[in-house]
Amino acid sequence: MDYNEGAPSTSAECACEAERLLNQADRSNNAGVMERRIAAAAVWANISIPAAQRETTEQ
Question: What average pLDDT score do residues 23-39 get?
Answer without folding.
Answer: 97
